[in-house]
């Protein structure tokens, strides 16, 4: 069953339970699909990335029925997205994130790691050039932040492939939230690659590290930030639709990504196995104490403070 749907029987029942109210048909027709049938059709599509017609032929449904089921399940999962993809806002959630990252990677005060990934799509009929990315193929560019377990805590999926990662972040709700609510180093950081500008709440690496503490900072930063790359890899390996070319309109592709991100978090929470992937559970504790930084509150000065205190 997991080979076909990426979930075991109990987890499929769990998914049916959380989306059931939105999928039950108010009809007495014998041909109406049950909640479980709709969920299994959608899971098979996400897992295989096959054409809708092929999914229908192998499961005994016509293409229109498969299309409708995939669309309805996708919308139902997005309706419950905020229950499964949550940014840490309260002190306990923040402390749990900081502890998890510090225990695994020895990097202090981290709330998440950020990056973007390209989902390959068929060239759209409208505004086609905007979807050609720097590698020359059509895509949508999706931003995500994950925690120390590889679960997504924030996603932004609505940009064409030519959009730069930094622009997606700078215009995102997450960036606005951090600009408004982050009052300093104690409130936590996110780690990003050199495609992002160094901000008080977003650390990138030193471009030309010369001193020992800067080099050690860069190594720890890269090691910690690799969790988001692994999360994308697991997501695309579990849901192959995101790994192949998606033959849908860009806005539908973005919605499918969101639904798969919800399912990804559900799979990790329920310890659904995946080949070559092992989940790591981190015991919670109090976060490492970071000395107050009284200097100029900009990204580069805060980065240097962290590097000197923890990586000297």
Descriptive notes:
Helices cover 48% and strands 11% of the residues. It contains twelve helices and five strands. A five-stranded mixed β-sheet has the order 3-2-1-4-5. Residues 276-286 have low confidence and may be disordered. The chain is elongated, with a radius of gyration of 21 Å. The protein is α/β, with parallel strands linked by helices and 312 residues long.
SSE layout:
Layout: H1 2-5, H2 9-23, H3 35-48, H4 52-59, H5 63-79, H6 81-84, H7 91-105, E1 110-120, E2 139-146, E3 152-160, H8 165-170, H9 173-181, E4 189-191, E5 202-203, H10 212-238, H11 250-269, H12 299-310
Parallel strand pairs: 1-4, 4-5
Antiparallel strand pairs: 1-2, 2-3
